[in-house]
Amino acid sequence: MCLGIPGKIIEISDQETLLMGKVDFGGVIKDVCLAYVPEAKVGDYTLIHVGFALSLMDEEEANATLDTLREIIELEDKMGINPVS
Fold first, then answer.
1. For residue 22, which of 11, 62, 74, 83 is within the disulfide window of CB 3.0 to 4.6 Å?
2. Structural domain tally of the chain?
3. 61: three-class secondary structure by DSSP
4. Rounded to two decimals, what is the model's pTM?
């Protein structure tokens, strides 16, 4: 199973012919490859998997996805599930 996390593009740069960006994940900033979404602009939301932006999404969809992920984490905590073990 793969898990993509939404983030907001805050900076775009062309690094040696590879389109890269800085993406904000709720205060955590990571470098991400934007090669699969060359149409991306600063301020866009994108779905990230292992450092690659896979698709663009609107802010409402990004927030809904993040809310769902938070609910899953809360439910796991209540049930005593540790998905890392």
1. 11
2. 1
3. helix
4. 0.81
